[in-house]
Hints:
Elements (H helix, E strand, L loop, with lengths): L1 E3 L5 E6 L9 H12 L2 E5 L3 H9 L8 H15 L6 E6 L1 H10 L6 E5 L24 E6 L7 H4 L8 E6 L16 H16 L1
Parallel strand pairs: 2-3, 2-4, 4-5, 5-6, 6-7
Antiparallel strand pairs: 1-3
Amino acid sequence: MLINGKPTFGRVILGHGAGAPMDSEFMEVIAQQLAEIGLEVVRFEFPYMIKRREDGKKRPPDRMPVLLSHLQQLISESKKEGTPLYIAGKSMGGRVATMLLESEDVDACFVFGYPFHPVGKPNKLRTEHLENLSKPLHIFQGTRDTMGSFNEVSEYNLSPSVHLHWLEDGNHDLKPRKVSGYSQQDHIDHAVKTIKEWIS
């Protein structure tokens, strides 16, 4: 487990995506910038990624019940009286967080690239639990994300508490093409600035 920053606005538990660990470049940048705005950032790895780190063998993500149980345990361990607790994640880590948002004692959720559906399977939606949320969920999504583009997601029936923040020309890693005039760092900066404005 890695912890960045001294809490001012609260604590955030940050989960990684399916294919990269908690100290990938994307996770490092996000964690550092969240810490800089006054959040204590708790990074962790799901069981399959812990095993991969131990033996170097690539393996698929754990089944959803295992992922959910692991994050639930971390939420329980991370609670501190008087300190707001947020959950967040990149892609799969964000999806797991959204599935616990309503049932756990957390204040809000932030997702960087939500996997609304598997790549190439736009009809296999992962949105049912997003239709009746009452707690704030902020999703930072690239407009050309192959797991949920602007044109696709605009048609979904999502709860009013789901706040979609569209990042121009971004892919699933929030990375735009050079011709767009934006950079991945621009989009990350915008996402973190939005989070800071919301929590403060």
